[in-house]
Amino acid sequence: MKPGDDPDPSRLVLGIETSCDETAAAVVERGVRVRSSVVATQHELHQEYGGVVPEIASRAHLERILPVVRAAVTEAGITLRDVDAVAVGHRPGLIGALLVGTSAAKGLALALDVPLIGVDHVHAHLVAGMLDREPPPFPALGLVASGGHSSIYLVEDPVRPRLLGRTIDDAVGEAFDKVAAMLDLGHPGGPAVEKLAESGDATAFDLPVANLGRGSLDFSFSGLKTAVLYAARGHPGRVPPVLDDRRRADLAASFQAAAIKALRRNLRRAFEAHPRIRSLLVGGGVTANGPIRAMLESECGERDVECRLAPLRWCVDNAAMIAALGDRHLEAGKRDPLELAPAATTRTDPVPD
Fold first, then answer.
1. What is the fold of 137-309?
2. CATH number assigned to the domain covering 12-127+315-331
3. I want to staple 310 with a disulfide (CB 3.0 to 4.6 A). Which of 53, 128, 132, 319 is the partner?
4. Mind giving me the DSSP string for 229-241?
5. Whole-model pTM?
6. In the chain, what are the domain boundaries?
7. pLDDT tens across 121-165, in order?
8. How far apart are CA 349 and CA 71, in angstroms?
9. How far apart are the C-alpha atoms of 324 and 132, rounded to whole Å?
């Protein structure tokens, strides 16, 4: 072997993801090339409840985890013995759901005698736009917009993203889902709100966008959500409005426009505070929204910053991003003990002054 040669040019990491209502497994080579990705969704199990039921989600993960792992290994054209490490999303998420994935990963790592690597699910969304592509230029800003998280990061190294701002209440995806419920659009709500908004007037309702202080990069969507509730169903003690098709469409469009305005404002503040930024890393289910993607591309274009939007298949929860970030941790020398515990929350370390 020549000096500088990679001792393991085809390193394979098996990723496992069970943080919410997707049971997923994937095999990624060298942290970039996706050899396989299998996702079993649970939408049909939770639809009648209008949201994810933790106990139902956990039981579904138990039933599906081993078949999904087997399918991912088969799709990758390998055997389990070819796996060099097992990465698992162990935070944040539903504890019961995380326990299923974490336990499976521990068992596999022990049986295969390979490293176990715990991965922060939110941080993994930041590398989703790097799958099957060359790495972006750094430093970067990172935006994660999902059902449970709305966060902005400074990313000089994907292994150690530094939190700049986050939601103090509802996440943007959670707001989309709750607005969908108010408008009787079903679950999951994000795609339904986006589709209905296409036929609505985004200026019909003057909805609030929370401002948490000049320069703050934190988000708040609870006030926006409540404003939509009153516009849809009326204020207590007053005659409720008629929620016909036109009003529903206008509310969907006005809500989506306000949510985009909140994301744009904080993103602009982050760019202004960090003028050396060369790229924007974007992930999370909400970033599959067409108007949001268009806004992000426009903001990056104005600054000559590379916009790394995750392809639609990698916006939703998946194990390929878990394996990819797990590979980067492995390369940095990280190994986790079999005592690795799941956690409901993500790390929220702020950027030091």
1. Nucleotidyltransferase; domain 5 (3.30.420)
2. 3.30.420.40
3. 128
4. HHHHH--TTSPPP
5. 0.91
6. 12-127+315-331, 137-309
7. 999 999 999 999 999 999 999 999 998 889 999 999 999 999 999
8. 36
9. 10
